[in-house]
Here is the input.
Amino acid sequence: MSGDSPFIIVLLAIVGGALRVSTPFMFVALGECLTEKSGRVNLGLEGTLVLGAMCAYAISFHSGSPWLGVLAAGCAGSLLGAIHGYVCKLPRVNDIAIGIAMMLFGTGLAFFFGKAYIQPSAPRLESFSLGAWTGNQQIETALQINPLLLVGVVVAIAMSWAFANTKWGLIVRMTGDSAPAARAMGVSVDMVRFLSTTAGGFLAGVGGAFLSLFYPGSWNQGLSSGQGLMAVALVIFARWDPIRCAFAALLFGATGAIGPALQSVGITQGYYFFNAAPYILTLLVMIASAGSKQAARNVPGELSITK
Amino acid sequence: MADIAEPMAPPMVAASEWRGDLSIRIRRGAEYVAIPLFALVVSAILFSLFLLALGKSPIQFFQLVHQGGFGTAFSIQNTLQRAAPLILTALAVAIPARIGLVMIGGEGALVVGGFASAAIAIPLVTGKASPMVALIIMAIAGMIFGALWVGIAGFLRYARGVNETISSLLLTYIGIATMNFFVEGALRDLTNPNKPSTMPIGDAYMVGKIPGTDVHWGLAIGVLLAIVLHILMSRTTFGFAVRVTGGNARAALAQGIPVGKLIVICCLIAGACAGLAGFYEVAAIQGRANASLVAGYGFTGILVAFLARHNAIAIIPVAIMFGGLVASGGLVQRRMDLPDATVLVLQGLTFVVLLVSETLYGRFKIFQPPITADRT
Here is the structure.
């Protein structure tokens, strides 16, 4: 196999990039999927992602254990999610506006406490390669996989199964489709949504840990630049199905990798255009899925975002 | 979608009776002032606790904000200088909010508008056009491109039902990337090796100061626009139709109000305001377009608009207050050894508390109309 052909290099870089870049998308999208299934929208996951990234990096730096950092990121994320979940149950409080506020608040906190961690380097998450058997150096580097990606895939499958087959899954779906029905069944709608938003925040925080502890693998203020937001949009595209969320995340990861991949073979023309590509793709995907009949069929009935 | 719009008068009450009842309007108005003020006080207290937990003095913080934002003639002018883009970006949030949209694309429209006016200035400056003509063309270009940016989000909302909050924020990222694309490539001024920028427009083409002050004309235009838009929203048929749509879009449709058209027009107005802010940032402050345009004015403008309850007149004092907060950022940073994100934390906290305070409306008896026998 000739590793010199630019086409192969670009393709490998895109595949490798998709595997690397997609993980945060996947976690945020799964978190948002859970929240939206319960009938509420959390637009603040961008802030959760950034705060998660900062906490993971700081804890990993101080404790020397990156996995402790991942846990800390999850806890920080669930704290933000819990605030969102609690506040939204109050009458007259708009969940979309609160999402924007939490996004600004989370980002602000992360930048505030993160200033001290821009310089030092924290221990990163270990990775292993799916391409080791080929003996080809390039394939090996391209197919570096982080355990968190696998965790994400497992969560996606588990969530999909739980929605379909467990009592808890049914309760979450029912709350999302019709709050009166849930109340009639004796389910506390506020509690279900609070827990779903908190758990969703946990997942988004873990996605942030991936950003700072694996790829790109350092903490700075431009780390996320809208990935959390794109992941929220992606849930609509994935029609509230965890498995489709995972695939959509891979697609988005691949788009995000086009720019750096082309740059690696010396095509720097339009680098900034390719930087914009994921945002443009998200917008196109939103336009396409907003009017689709299938999306309209699968949308949780209580959701304010599609009205 | 209608949640953020101002509540309409209760439909039970006949219009003439409603208008005549001054005490109700005063009580309502007092509620709209008292609850945001209360939210501000609560967030100041929470932020003080935050500072105390970090071992910093909240008293020193607020003293420095006062000193850096309003303490001297110089700092007041600095504050007003920053209030100008905040008024315009807040209008960019408030006008769509009146029709029930949570549109947060002000930052993107500001960047795109500022870049467009800096780009169109290049042939005008090299062609030695008269400064007045050049500035007018630049301002129009900024407004058109800003309007386009928010207008896209509005059109998508109307035509496809795309959620405007997400799309307008995405368009912000796209706008910043577009500016970077040109500023680092085709339109880069190669004589300036330090920071990728467009060609400077030069002192002769800069917007002047308001006589007797050090504040550029953007402030006066911003205040004027706020007044004009307030009249448009509260005293015209157009404004009435917009408010009806914001209150209940379905009812508005049933009444034959062209909802889609109104949505797009509101978004075009909003974008033009933010684009104008970008024009002033380029033509009065920076002198060129570069990454400094991405200064967060668009995001602070969201908070300003919500605090002002999307009332164009109320935006003016709130914008000046936050202009002072932004202006004092540097001083606070130096004296108290706090990171520059301190202002961000305070803003985020205020925003959350403010939105939570929405739940208080209608809960205090003192603000409610007295229940009389003939009313019920």
About this structure: Residues 56 and 162 of chain B are 45 Å apart (CA to CA). Residues 7-11 of chain B have pLDDT under 50 and may be disordered. Chain B has 15 helices and no strands.
